[in-house]
């Protein structure tokens, strides 16, 4: 058995039905454990994202603003999955897959909230005076069995470092280079050099530099993409009702479940919708809480609610809009020259092109480049903090930054198909200790949640 075969087998197992049930099941458990407060307080969370900092700033500990923390987390989550992943899910699972993406996101709100609460509650200060946190610190500092907590924390940090080079770098750089070469005929080596320079410029300033870039780049790119997508939806609005009808009818219906073939369609919709939803918003993987731990905040729950909105923006807004663009375009199910269904980025471009013509391809290419670059920045921070947990060496972290930047050139100039499978495996392995942590420390999450509800929300009537 070759290494490639082993990696593909591990990927299929880790992202099979068991893992998807565990990811969504943990979200369901936490939603009930927290008495649906993450859902009930979503308006409060959205308001907190956009309100200006107030008097709490003087007594709030952290390195970056809560908004910068959220944007850093969104930088890593809003990526090619919002453009390519949605298209793949709709082709593989049918229009009903979008409904199950919504379901996974709704319960993912509770998961993302709990992860971020624990990250802030158990964070530490490093030798440079910066905050460091995430699932590994929650496991180490929160578990009563310190040996088990340290072991799980070590495993999570190791898998995060490895994943940062794969899904956080090589695959993103490859997507940027491919899009730039296909649309603007830019040689991949030019893109690779540009990525090294731009990434180095941002990363040498550490988390404060990443936060400043992300708070400007992420909202700008998201607004640009959403505006053009809404133009396409409005122009194809006559097809929207039938598209929505397909989404709900193929997602869940008595008639579909009753038949053999239709039942298979429903199961495919569940599988691909949940898988792509989780893969897009990363709820349950434990990555976003690493950015949450750096936020200036006076209460773990405050940042928990703010970071929770990342799942809302990523899946319930951006992925939904991409899905509606495709569903209303009439391009879903269209065959290419070889007789295969158009899928991936080609399907999204085709959908945008029904209204915007050749400019649809330009918009998607620019979107992929910006989304993927922001993902590189966000995942570098995740990987660096995970490495810091493992080796406690500032010099090693600076070397990591340089190596990370250089590897982006490799991703831009080399087609490494196995890297995608390897990245899936590392993400799956990250999720396992993180889900254990969320369940074991759910009591602490509930304690912080109910205290914040009593002291801040009920007292202030909001």
UniProtKB/TrEMBL annotation:
InterPro entries: Na/Ala_symport (IPR001463). GO terms for cellular component: plasma membrane. It is a multi-pass membrane protein. It is found in: Cell membrane. The chain crosses the membrane at residues 13-32, 147-168, 188-210, 222-241, 247-267, 312-335, 359-379, 400-422, 428-446. The keyword Transport applies. Keywords: Cell membrane, Membrane, Symport, Transmembrane, Transmembrane helix, Transport. Pfam families: Na_Ala_symp (PF01235). GO terms for molecular function: amino acid:sodium symporter activity. Belongs to the alanine or glycine:cation symporter (AGCS) (TC 2.A.25) family. This is Sodium:alanine symporter family protein.
């Amino acid at each position: 058995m070759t290494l490639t075969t082993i990696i593909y087998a591990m990927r299929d197992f880790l992202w099979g039905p068991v893992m998807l049930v565990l990811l969504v099941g943990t979200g369901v458990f936490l939603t009930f454990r927290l008495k649906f407060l993450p859902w009930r307080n979503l308006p409060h969370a959205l308001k907190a994202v956009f309100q200006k900092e107030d008097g709490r700033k003087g007594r709030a500990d952290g390195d970056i603003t809560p908004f910068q923390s959220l944007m850093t987390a969104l930088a890593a989550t809003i990526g090619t999955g919002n453009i390519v992943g949605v298209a793949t899910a709709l082709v593989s699972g049918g229009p009903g897959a979008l409904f199950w993406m919504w379901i996974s996101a709704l319960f993912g709100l509770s998961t993302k909230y709990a992860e971020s609460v624990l990250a802030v509650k158990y964070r530490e200060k490093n030798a440079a005076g910066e905050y460091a946190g995430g699932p590994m610190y929650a496991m180490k500092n929160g578990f009563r069995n310190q040996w088990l907590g340290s072991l799980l924390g070590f495993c999570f940090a190791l898998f995060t470092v490895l994943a940062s080079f794969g899904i956080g770098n090589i695959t993103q750089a490859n997507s940027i280079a491919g899009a730039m070469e296909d649309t603007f005929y830019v040689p991949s080596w030019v893109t690779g050099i540009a990525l090294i320079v731009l990434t180095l410029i941002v990363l040498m300033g550490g988390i404060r530099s990443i936060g400043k870039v992300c708070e400007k780049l992420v909202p700008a790119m998201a607004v640009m993409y959403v505006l053009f997508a809404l133009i396409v939806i409005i122009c194809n609005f006559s097809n929207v009702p039938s598209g929505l009808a397909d989404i709900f009818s193929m997602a869940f219906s008595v008639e579909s479940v009753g038949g053999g073939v239709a039942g298979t369609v429903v199961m495919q919709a569940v599988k691909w919708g949940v898988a792509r939803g989780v893969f897009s918003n990363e709820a349950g993987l434990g990555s976003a809480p690493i950015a949450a731990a750096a936020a200036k905040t006076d209460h773990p729950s405050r940042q928990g609610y703010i970071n929770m909105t990342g799942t809302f923006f990523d899946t319930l807004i951006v992925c939904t809009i991409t899905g509606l663009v495709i569903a209303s375009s009439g391009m879903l199910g269209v065959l290419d020259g070889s007789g295969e269904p158009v899928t991936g980025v080609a399907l999204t471009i085709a959908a945008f092109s029904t209204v915007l013509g050749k400019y649809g391809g330009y918009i998607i290419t620019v979107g992929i480049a910006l989304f993927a670059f922001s993902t590189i920045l966000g995942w570098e921070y995740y990987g660096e903090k995970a490495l810091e947990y493992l080796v406690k060496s500032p010099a090693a972290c600076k070397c990591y930054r340089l190596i990370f930047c250089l590897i982006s050139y490799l991703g831009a100039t080399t087609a490494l198909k196995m890297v995608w499978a390897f990245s899936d495996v590392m993400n799956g392995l990250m999720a396992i200790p993180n889900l254990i942590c969320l369940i074991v420390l759910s009591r602490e999450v509930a304690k912080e949640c109910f205290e914040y509800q009593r002291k801040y929300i009920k007292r202030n009537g909001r």
